[in-house]
Design brief:
- The structure is a homotetramer of 139-residue chains.
- Chain A is α+β, with helices and mostly antiparallel strands and 139 residues long.
- The first copy, chain A, contains four helices and five strands; from the N terminus they run βααββββαα.
- Chain A has helices at 22-38, 43-48, 121-124, 126-135; strands at 4-7, 55-62, 71-81, 86-94, 100-109.
- β2 (55-62) of chain A pairs antiparallel with β2 of chain C, so a sheet runs across the interface.
Chain lengths: 139, 139, 139, 139
């Protein structure tokens, strides 16, 4: 697994002169999408197969603000894998500030089938659940 | 027709200390959606009927920057109504700065049917096209 | 205290057909800015006085997705008021879906002076801290 | 000059199932910031020197919608270089759709000094103006 790398955009700043806090939630999504591609399960394929994957919970702890044009590196790990829900953990490091930890957080997800019923991860998505466990360091 | 009124949000600012220019394009959409509701053709109904309405063109001329918490008022007018395309014109006034004209611009749209064919506005959406003409002052 | 009311925007949707989860974090900010104005301490005045108010933590639990054009109502309450930090709690109700609770979450904040030192809320912002306590129902 | 390359993000989609049109304006900014770095004049340095660079005008013509996870390539060219204003032209190609032209547009800018007076590009920013002319193919 390669960490996800991105450069903070100008339109992501606010008038405090730093990246607006809501964008970290979007960066977590970027890192998650990248991770899914890396392990061979690109997110767009889940939607093509008719699954919906709502976000059930997010949290983020902000340690040190990120500035425009800073390069951040995001490490995604698996924090918890339940039957229906799984939680990913994200550590966001600012490589333009000596790799300081800027923020960390989690997102919790499930998959829903077309009829709205939740997918049992350990049965109906066993291979994917295994791939995620094997690829992601435990948080 | 009542003008569309909104307050500039903090998350819409950038580190220049003003509203980021991309948000004016979003404000035009807010004003357009509000206008369609006012004339009795809420946008969500078009999508429910299976129409898609892509944006074909936008432009915006920025005259005076808007700041966080400023109240803006947007006037929507009909600039051009063709067989397939129509163009709306938006004037954005800053009511927190004595009503100065902050920006103006246009958006051009068409409607597509499920099969991708463009709707002939003067035939297949005659009532709606008339309602828009009657409600909106000509630009 | 009046609840904060807003209509979900088209540009806030994603291809799942619902409001993208990151926007709820922005809505909490909208509700917070509105609350501060209602209690007589508009946020822009804090910045004019040279204070910076970083967000230290956010979390959000998503219960039921909000759709384009839905009207949501957000109740802000005070969850915790410490010497340096305070936590607000937000309940987001969907008035277009019989007032169902769509999401709830919290944000934690502090104030920093120009020199970067944190403001002692109970000493240096006593009046504001009191106003917030008195106006906001305890969560 | 290398073209600017980016992948369309999930949070940039809307419920039409494509990238929301406002994001193309943000992508033009991303491409512009990247171009300035490539020619040795990173944008953050202009702000550090006290210059402000407002956007005066944008327009965008949408030809073919971009989808989530598509890779786009953006070519920036110099369309016009005046004494005070300059206009950049952007062509956005979708590499996930055989390189089809998805959209094109322009942005017009000037630079302002701290006192609000516009910079005379051919006098006060001569080197930068030359660098931009030399690096960017004429549109």
């Amino acid at each position: 697994m390669k960490p996800y790398i991105k450069t903070a955009k100008y339109y992501e700043t606010d008038q405090m002169g730093v990246i607006h806090h809501s964008n970290y939630i979007r960066w977590m999504e970027e890192a998650r999408v990248d991770m899914l591609s890396q392990i061979g399960y690109p997110y767009r394929r889940f939607e093509e197969m008719g699954y919906i994957s709502p976000v059930l919970h997010v949290d983020c702890e902000y340690k040190k603000s990120v500035k425009f044009d800073d390069e951040v590196q995001i490490i995604v790990r698996l924090q918890e894998a339940g039957r229906v829900k799984f939680t990913l953990r994200y550590d966001i490091y600012n490589m333009s500030e000596d790799g300081v930890l800027s923020a960390y957080g989690t997102t919790t997800h499930c998959f829903l089938k077309k009829d709205g019923r939740p997918v049992l991860m350990d049965k109906e998505m066993k291979e994917f659940a295994e791939a995620m466990k094997n690829a992601l360091e435990q948080a």
